[in-house]
Amino acid sequence: MSDRSRLRIVVLRVVVASILLTLIGRLTYLQVAEGVSYSAAAKQNRIRTVITPAARGQILDDKGRALVTNRTALVVSVTRSIVRASKDRGTAELARLSKIVGLPVKDITTTISPCVYHDPSGKQIPLIPGCWNGSPYQPVPIASYNSEDAAQVKRVLAIAEHQELFPGVTAEYQAVREYPGGTLAAHVLGYLGPLSSDDTGKPKYKDLPSGTEIGRTGVEQVYDDRLRGTLGQDRLLVDKDGSVVGTRGTTTPVAGDNLVLSIDAGVQKVAEKALADGIANIRKQFDKNRGKNFVAPGGAAIVVEVSTGRIVAMASNPTYDPTAFVGHISPKVYASLSNAFGHPLISNAVQGLYAPGSTFKIVSTAAAVKAGYSLGGYYPCPGQFLGKRNFEGESFASLNFTDTLIRSCDTVYYKLAYEQWLKDGKREGVAHPKEYFPKEARIWGFGKKTGIDLPDERVGLITDRAYKKAFWLANKDKGLNYCKGAKTRPKGTYQQQADAEFCADGYALNGGDAMNFAIGQGDVLVTPLQLAMAYSALVNGGTLFHPQLAKGFVSADGRTSTTLPPKVAGHVDTPANVRAYIASALGGVPHPPHGTAKGAYAGFPFGQLQIGGKTGTADVNNKAPTSWFASFAPLDKPKYVTVVMVPEASTGGTTAGPISRKIWDGIYGLEGQKAQLPGGVTPASLPVVRNDGTIGPPGTKVVRPALSPSPSSGPTALGAPGLEWAYRREGS
Description:
Elements: H1 3-33, H2 35-45, E1 47-52, E2 59-60, E3 66-78, H3 80-83, H4 91-101, H5 105-112, E4 116-118, E5 124-126, E6 140-146, H6 150-156, H7 158-161, E7 169-178, H8 186-189, E8 192-194, E9 213-215, H9 218-222, H10 224-228, E10 232-238, E11 244-251, E12 258-261, H11 265-283, E13 286-287, E14 292-293, E15 299-305, E16 310-317, H12 331-339, H13 361-370, E17 379-381, E18 384-385, E19 388-389, E20 396-399, H14 401-407, H15 410-423, H16 436-443, E21 461-462, H17 465-475, H18 482-488, H19 494-505, H20 511-518, E22 524-525, H21 528-539, E23 543-546, E24 550-554, E25 561-563, E26 567-571, H22 576-586, E27 612-620, E28 623-633, E29 640-646, H23 652-668, E30 688-689, E31 695-696, E32 727-728
Parallel strand pairs: 2-12
Antiparallel strand pairs: 1-10, 1-32, 2-3, 3-6, 3-7, 4-5, 8-9, 10-11, 12-24, 13-14, 15-16, 15-29, 17-20, 18-19, 21-22, 23-26, 24-25, 27-28, 28-29, 30-31
């Protein structure tokens, strides 16, 4: 054998040995180093977790009346990924479904479309409202039907009977929210919506499967975790074909707590009806200044318990029915609600910003006294001051603060504010201006959130020199870019002139700004809720509360309950004698001969209930004024404050005053009305869950049976005996 042949054999042996060693090494690595992880993965692939939602807690009023509960519904859902997997991308299937559920194919397609999709660069592109916020692999509810409607049920169950024609569609019984009062307190209660991809990154939602219904607005959102309860889990062992062969443990779901609100359903109904009737009435009246009827696009009415800050009623008009969001709201319905006149999805009570007009004079009076003006002094009330007029040019001889508040003389406050503006250095200001009026407004809670347990509360606007300077710097050449508008808008138009003025010296606080501020106009914007809490502080000893809607929680079985204490936000440092003086003065506003609300309260039974209050008529450019009335009663020891506001609706005494009268009638049972709070008393304790699951009013006596062992399977949906429903979590 030649040397060359021997060399080839050696090389071949080396190559073979190397390959064998590599294979042995890799095999050893897979069996030893990676064996544990592959074994774990194999076991995991054999386990499927079935999530069982807990029964969601009810929302009750202070007497235990259900504002939100649960019912059984027949829900039709579409799984987009299955439908689009067909050859025609689901065209025929959706057409068949459209005929059964009575919805256009276009609406169904929009409803099941994800709310965002990713373009080739990875950027998220938002789609239209009414789209699906959950996982694209989750069944999307498109329609919900009353399970007691036999005709509807029979028609919809045709889907299940012909499943071969609807492979991506299901028709199943589910527990859904029910609103016994319809639109009652809709802005307070809120509604549910599916868990979105944006939500899954939040800690409070990290353990929830895609598509889970969560609170989207109102107290449904704020107290979602307590209402939702704890999910149940069944860990099932499955074979390679997906058949269940055993279990690896079960966690029973825990029903959510019942949320008890301080809202009284009776007072809420009275407030909503009084507000709706008042708006309808003023719309019939002719506005001679504008040559057409008053517009009155909406309004708000609030009742607050002054000793606790709890909200007894909170009405916003226009309103909506939360039932529209049960299952999944259609794009058409959502668009109609979003674009409707008056914007019914917006709460005017906590999200609407308005100039408060003369209701703000309680703040200005307190500020004037701090600035050194005598509480017992007299001040001239001419028909105008520096070109600014009283209402309809009225003029009076010198008035004390009592008569100034009763008659609502603007020129008194114009002069006081102007004098302080001069002392503070006019437009530019001195190094450390006193600025009594804006500082006092902030002390009374304006210019910041009240802290109510509702989402999306507005802050409002309280201006001073520092604010004006900061706003000017932020918007002169960027932001709103007024200087650009001064050059590009049509020359001579109102907006072009306003932009030019702001560009030149928008940082300066003018004398007119200070004067307007003192009567609650110009750069003053408040929510009706802020005003209600300020008036509560006026008459409760100076305490500013964080307003609360939640009064407490009661467990689903009734064995545990928690009452939430009032929350103090701060204290108004206005001396007690000043606050008492202002409150006493406001007792004359509903009375003749000079009270600005004397017409609204003509013939009122003051012998049964003495009321104090303040009208407000806030002018708005090119619109009718905003009508306000803030009031409290009983006058000697106030229990409640009411605030009523209607924009574009004449004077405070014409529109808001009569609405507030009807609310007081309903609370105390006056002028032929039924008393919703007999004696003006709210319940001291929480409602009670009876042993049969029904709700009893506060004080109901219940003897609890001994606890029995927990069942092995989870509870069924409330109101759906024997019905088991679950979500399967993807990838588990």
